[in-house]
Amino acid sequence: MRKTFVGLVLVVMLVASLSGCNWFSQTSATPTPAPAPPPSPWPLAVTDRSGQQVTIAAQPGRIISMAPNLTEILFALNLGSKVVGRTSFCNHPPEAAAIPSVGDEWSPNYELIAGLKPDLVLAVGTAESKIVVESRRLGLTTVVTQSATIEEVFEDIVLVGKVAGATQAAEQLVDTLRGRYHAIKEKTRDAKDRPSVFWVIDIDLWTVGPGTFMDHLTTVAGGVNVAASEGFAYLQYSMEALLAKDPDVIIVAVPKDEYPKLQAKPGWDQLSAVKNQRVLFPDPDVVSRPGPRIVDGLELVARGLHPQLFR
Questions:
Q1: Do residues 301 and 164 touch, judged by C-beta distance below 8 A?
Q2: What b/e string do you get for 194-231 counting C-beta neighbours within 10 Å, with b at 16 or more?
Q3: CA 142, 49, 221 angle in degrees (round to 5)?
Q4: d(CA 45, CA 19)
Q5: Could you list the pLDDT tens digit for every one of the 311 residues in the chain?
Q6: CB 287 within 8 A of CB 300
Q7: Which of 2, 49, 104, 209 has the fewest CB atoms within 10 Å of its CB?
């Protein structure tokens, strides 16, 4: 009888091993629960640059960009396919030209904007800016950005990524840009000289003063804006005033084909920057737009001011 029992046990164990089953573990194991899906961020509430709290009900599928830098940010985050409207000045990347224009930033077509039924409108300005006031009056979810420094550009890129549903892509982009930004700052921080700089943003000698983005760019690039102490963000110089300042470097941030009009101004050829061939012609869009190409703009300016540091 004992031999028969032992034989039966051996047969059971053999069958279990051949079938790949572990009878003992199966009777005691506890099923592992499936991982819970990550919580949805929508609806999402943010405080934008206008100081207003804005709630985005769901991930936007239709976005209108009311500034060129915002269009560039959206495309850099691979969100170009969601942009259904842009301004007439949104010329980069080239693919933006295929998107319907809703007018420029100062006189947009509000009827067209509403007709495009956007889930999200992105704008630059303040709570009092007309585009912001009118867009919100139409009941459109509107998020406002505003950058005066490169760090604020990075913050706005993250904000756009967050409200458009591309937070991870925005953070990765900013990490890359910030690394390049700090590398340039390291080069210019200990520059032995800091040349004086005059920006030409209009051929009638309009320039930038304190608190502007290009004033900040000048400082980080290792220069001194001659209009930094004027007390106005934007102001017009006379040729006499410019000759008195006599900057070391002039940055012409207008289309290069307009330069002959500057050359024709009496006294222009008497400026030290002109005599010493230190007139720079960076792409105006790259150095003036607070978007993903701004580190390119910073490097262009820094190389122009301190070429010896970038050899």
A1: no
A2: bbbbbbbbebebebbbeebbbbbbbbbbbbbbbbbebe
A3: 125
A4: 56
A5: 444 444 434 333 433 444 444 433 444 556 777 776 678 889 999 999 999 999 999 999 999 999 999 999 999 999 999 999 999 999 999 999 999 999 988 899 999 999 999 999 999 999 999 999 999 999 999 999 999 999 999 999 999 999 999 999 999 999 999 999 999 999 999 888 999 999 999 999 999 999 999 999 999 999 999 999 998 999 999 999 999 999 999 999 999 899 999 999 999 999 999 999 999 999 999 999 999 999 999 999 999 999 999 98
A6: yes
A7: 2
Please return the burial class of 301, using the count of CB atoms within 10 Å of its CB with bins 0-12, 13-18 and 19+.
Answer: buried
The H or E element that residue 4 is part of is helix 2-18
In three-state secondary structure terms, 230 is coil
> Which of 97, 100, 62, 96 lies closest to 82 in space, CA to CA?
62
Taking alpha carbons only, the member of 309, 260, 262, 254 closest to residue 287 is 254
Written as six digits, the tokens of 176 are 């890359």
